[in-house]
Amino acid sequence: MENNTARLQRVRPGRKGRTLRNPVTPYMFLLPFLGMLGLFMLYPIIYSIVISFMRFRAGEFTFFGLSNYKFLIQDQAFHKAILNTIRILLIQVPIQTFMAVVLATFMNDIRVKLRGLWRMFIFMPVLIDTVSYALVFGLLFNQREGFINSLLRINVQWFNEAIPATALIIMAVTWRWTGYNAIIILAGLQNIGNDLYEAASIDGCNRVKQFIHITLPGAKPVILFSVIFSINGVLQLFTEPNLLTRGGPAGATETIVSYLYQIGFTQFNFGLASAGAYVLAIMIAVVTGLQFRLQKEE
Asked: Of the CATH numbers 1.10.490.10, 2.130.10.10, 1.10.3720.10, 3.40.1080.10, which one belongs to the domain with range 70-297?
C-alpha cells in the first residue's frame, strides 16, 4: 500500500508536473487570524502610538510632539496617581501572595478531605463579575447601614477617609484574586515529589522546616510568576477604585488607569491619555524585566 506521503505527491492526470500540495494553503488558513490580529490589535497599537504625539481639539488631531509626555512628567495629579498605585501594590501584593501560598499548601495536603470542593470555593471569587462584587463590597462597607460597621460596632468612614478607602480597595482586590493565584501556586506545588517530604520526615524535619526548605524553594518559579501577574494587575487597577471610591476622597485612591480614564473619556484628551498609557506600559515592562533579572541572578 502507498503511504500518505506518496498519495499526496501523486501527480494528477493531464497536469503533468503539478502535485496536490500547494505551499500557499497553510497561509490561507492563517489569513483570517492574521487579519483579525492586525485589525483589532496591531492597528490600535500603532494608532495610539501616533496620537500620543498629537493634541485632540475641535474634533481634529494636530501634531504636538513630546508635549504630552512632558506634561505627564510635570503633572502633580499623575504623580499622585502613581504614588497611590504603588502604595496599594506594596501592601496588597505581599498579603495576597502570602495568603495564596498558605491556601495552596492547604489544598495540596493529602490529608485534607474534599480537596476538589475546597478548590472550587477558593477559585470562585474570580468567576464573579467585577461590577457585581464591587457593588456588594460597597453595600457591606456602607458607613451607615453596612454589615461590617454594624458587626464590629464601629463607625469607620470607608469612603470619606483616605486610609479606610485605600484599605477597602486592597481588601476587595485581595478577596477576588487570592484564590486565582492559589490555584496557580498549587500547580507548582504538585510538581514537588512526595519523596522529598518523606525523606525530610525521616530526618526529623517538622512541617514548618519542610515548608521553608522544600515547599518554598520548589514553588519559587510559580510564586514569582504569581507576583509578576499580581503586580501587573495592580498597575492596571481601575474597576474597584472607580466603582467603590471613584478615586476619592480628594484623589486618595485614584490609580494610574483611573487618571487616564478621566483624561481620555471625561476631558477627551486622547493624545495625553495615549501617552500616559505608554508610560504605564514602560513601567510594567521595567518592573517585569527587573523581577526576571533578579530571578535569573539567584
From this structure: 1.10.3720.10
